[in-house]
């Protein structure tokens, strides 16, 4: 008889997720997650400061059995190493999707799922099942971990994301109840990352580490490795990481009824920057278009924002750090009329026009604005040299729950992600297969395209 613990009940619900009983909206969302996730991995390989390049070179140097693809790397390596590199690249641009409560559900999980599925030649319906399981586990843990604060302490991809990666891997490998308990228990000793590393390359590696540990924990558990059978019980995850600030009952309460990837859903990012910067970006772009603002007209800029220090970075240290700066992203949106991967190079960050105007961008904290991401808003005010004062409050968030990107917008993003690394005909082939993922016998062709041509060892 199975022990009566919250962790055991959680595992029963996790193992009950089955492709054959998934609702159609969940299958469709899993397809979208697959395509968007693969696209941002491809784009992340070319992150301007070298996150992708170093990650690829690192796993190449480490060696490993040729089991799974390193995206754009031109080679295969072990499942764990491939999951690490691809997970890091998936988060390199901060373009990977998110949801509510805030978490990055794809970058820590999909790379682990891809690595196992490719090596084991598993069918698309099993991948969809694994994505659904990985997402639901992260969602329930994120809801239960009430002490896990946004932008503070432990960074979510390395904590809740690690458990999501283990869950997806466990479903793909067909772990039984006891093995899944062991895999999650082992994950408790593999989880951890600190938000202090935001703005550096290390933040991206939190997702890579989680993906790698997802593979490792599931494989070791399948081989008979032991761990605590009650990682979410007394002295476990909640007590260790959060000083008991959690509600473990939320792990099982409402589990998959409905799946949270369906309701409230998943937010797909329109811009490659921290999601808190997107409302000010949208406001700046709307003002620029409506009033035909030219850079030389701008005298000063104010962003009115809730109290959230995470994105208060008046002088970002690099283009990468600029992804987490309200001041920088708002200014570049006004100057360039768009926010792209190229907005976060060091060249753009330290360009003369940015250097000249960045000191004129101020952030005004308004404590009356709610900090809850789903309910917050931002106002951008622009003063022009001719004396005009323009302003726009932005509450709607493009790509967020309730305001999804259209299929056309999602595909525009995908092809933007892949255009420098994958031939358009091949990218369209990936799209065609991803949109019928559940019918595929395996993902060999997709991963072959994503891998790219073989490259010689240095």
- Order the strands across the largest sheet as they lie in space: 4-3-5-6
Specify the structural class: alpha+beta
How many extended strands?
A: 6
**How many angstroms does the end-to-end distance come to?**
55 Å
Largest sheet: 4 strands, mixed
Which strand-content bin applies to the residues? 5-15%
- The number of helices is 18
Shape: globular
Q: C-alpha Rg, in Å?
A: 22 Å
Helix content: 40-55%
Q: What's the overall average pLDDT, rounded?
A: 95
In the CATH classification, which architecture of the largest domain applies? Orthogonal Bundle
CATH superfamily of the largest domain: 2-methylcitrate dehydratase PrpD
Number of spatially distinct domains: 2
Under CATH at level 1, the class of the largest domain stands as: Mainly Alpha
What are the low-pLDDT stretches, counting only 5+ consecutive residues below 50? none
* H and E order: HHHEEHHHHHHHHEHHHHEEEHHH
CATH fold-type name of the largest domain: 2-methylcitrate dehydratase PrpD
């Amino acid at each position: 008889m199975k022990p009566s613990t919250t962790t055991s009940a959680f595992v029963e619900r996790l193992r009950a997720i089955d492709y054959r009983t998934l609702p159609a909206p969940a299958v469709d969302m899993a397809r979208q997650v697959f395509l968007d996730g693969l696209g941002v991995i491809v784009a992340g390989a070319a992150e301007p400061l070298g996150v992708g390049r170093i990650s690829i070179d690192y796993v190449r140097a480490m060696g490993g059995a040729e089991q799974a693809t390193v995206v754009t790397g031109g080679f295969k390596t072990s499942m764990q190493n491939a999951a690490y590199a691809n997970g890091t690249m998936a988060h390199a641009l901060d373009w990977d999707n998110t949801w509510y409560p805030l978490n990055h559900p794809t970058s820590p999980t999909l790379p682990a799922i891809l690595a196992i599925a490719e090596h084991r030649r598993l069918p698309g319906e099993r991948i969809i099942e694994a994505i659904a399981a990985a997402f639901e586990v992260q969602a329930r843990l994120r809801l239960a971990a009430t002490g896990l604060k946004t932008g503070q302490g432990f960074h979510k991809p390395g904590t809740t994301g690690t458990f999501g990666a283990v869950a997806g891997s466990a479903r793909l490998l067909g772990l039984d109840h006891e093995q899944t308990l062991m895999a999650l228990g082992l994950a408790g000793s593999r989880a951890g990352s600190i938000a202090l590393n935001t703005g550096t390359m290390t933040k991206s590696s939190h997702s890579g580490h989680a993906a790698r540990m997802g593979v490792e924990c599931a494989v070791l558990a399948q081989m008979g490795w032991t761990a605590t059978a009650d990682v979410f019980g007394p002295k476990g995850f909640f007590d260790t990481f959060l000083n008991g600030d959690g509600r473990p009952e939320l792990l099982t309460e409402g589990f998959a009824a409905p799946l949270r990837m369906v309701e409230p859903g998943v937010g797909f990012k329109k811009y490659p920057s921290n999601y808190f910067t997107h409302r000010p970006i949208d406001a700046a772009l709307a003002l620029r278009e409506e009033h035909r603002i030219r850079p030389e007209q701008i005298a000063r800029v104010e962003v009115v924002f809730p109290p959230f220090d995470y994105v208060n970075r008046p002088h970002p240290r690099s283009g990468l750090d600029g992804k987490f700066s309200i001041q920088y992203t708002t200014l570049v949106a006004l100057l360039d009329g768009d926010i792209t991967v190229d907005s976060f190079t060091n060249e753009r960050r330290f360009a003369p026009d940015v250097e000249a105007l960045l000191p004129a961008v101020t952030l005004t904290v308004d404590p009356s604005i709610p900090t809850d991401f789903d309910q917050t808003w931002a106002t951008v005010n622009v003063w022009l040299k001719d004396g005009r004062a323009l302003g726009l409050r932005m509450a709607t968030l493009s790509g967020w729950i309730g305001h999804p990107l259209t299929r056309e917008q999602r595909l525009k993003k995908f092809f933007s992600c892949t255009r420098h690394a994958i031939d358009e005909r091949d990218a369209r082939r990936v799209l065609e297969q991803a949109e019928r993922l559940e019918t595929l016998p395996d993902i060999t062709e997709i991963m072959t395209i994503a891998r790219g041509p073989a490259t010689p060892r240095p």
